[in-house]
Amino acid sequence: MAAPMPNTQGQSPRPISQSELNLLVDAHQKFIAGRPGGKRLNLRFANLNGLKLADRNLSDADLSSCTLCGAVLARTKLDRANLFGCDLRQADLRFASLARADLRGASFRGANLSQADLAGADLREGAVGVADRQHGLSMRSHDMQAGVLDNAILKGARLDGTQMTNASAFSADFTDCSMKGANLVGANLKDANMSGAILDGADVAGANLSGTKFKGAVLGNVDVQRAKTTEGVDLSGVLRDPSADAVKMADTLLARAQANQTWRKTGGKEGKPAQFDGMDLRPIGFGLAGLKLTAMSAKGACLVSLDLSNCELQGANFEGADLRGANLAGADLRGARLIGANLTRADLTGAIMAPLPISADRETPVNLTGACLRYSSAVNSDLTAAVLANAELRGLDLTGANLARVNRQGVDFSQTKGLVAYV
């Protein structure tokens, strides 16, 4: 375990026992719930190394300048918490929520933040404060340090809008992360792994991208040339901005979608099912949300980050389509064909993926054979009788999902989230 960082007086942070911490956290949770005996957790400059805080709600707590080396904070809620200057080296923060937390000057070196939520968190520079018994809190203005994520594991984490100006993430693993609009100006990302990450709108100006691996990443509106160093950067298979031709097709594709809706509303008397095979639909933006697109075909199409929420997509064909980060919440996908589709980080919350009735004794199940659903959300979805054969489900959230009669051949449910027991 890493040793705590001493202050300028050579004093180590005050050690707190597990039992004492439990009492303080219990009081904080009462404070959050508005119950009698509640008190906001204010525990600055404490030694919490190796202590267990898993599954607790520490939202809005003040733990600034604490040492939490090797602490267990898996699934802990730390939204808006003050972790300014904290030492969280080697900490277990899997599935933790740190949305909009103050992480300035904090160190997560070697920590496990797999599937953590750091959206809007602040990892910029901060001056480390020290506790002085005679003079109270003093500030070492000369000791400015940015957030540290060196060698940290952030697979499948959410860092949308995270402030990482001048932060250090040397050799960190950001595989399949969502980093839309992240501020990476001046950050040290040397040898970092961003394979499959979605970085739409991220700013990498002045960043060190030497040896950074962006293999298969989404780099829409990202100017890698503004980085300070790009020596040895791996950009193989990245998805760039839509081409000029794709942008020109936007109105035509939207008209096809409207014709599909007309076909659905008139029972086939007018319009026809949309044909989007191989097309880049990203320029349509939010134009498809809520539409009736029954039987549309988008084989091999690019629908990355597209809003398809609440769409009627019964019998739609998405075979081999790229649906990374797509919003399919509440969509009706009964009988849809999603063989080999890439649904990494897609939102399928409340989606209907049950069989589509064809006749009194016939039905067509959703086919997800060989599909990739890494780090996606299928919370409260209906997957009755779905064909999941050989699908990749690492990090998939199945909380409240209906998995009755699913075809699970070659499927590993052990790395999914939300199941009481592996099916």
How would you characterize this protein structure?
This protein has 423 residues and is low in regular secondary structure. The protein has a domain at 242-423: Pectate Lyase C-like (3 Solenoid), CATH 2.160.20. The protein is 9% helix and 7% strand. It is built from three helices and six strands. A two-stranded parallel ribbon has the order 1-2. Strands 3-4 form a two-stranded antiparallel ribbon. A hairpin with a 3-residue loop joins strand 3 (126-132) and strand 4. The chain starts with 13 loop residues before the first strand and ends in a 59-residue tail after the last strand. The model is unreliable at 1-10 and 135-142 (pLDDT under 50).
Concise overview:
The chain is low in regular secondary structure and 423 residues long.
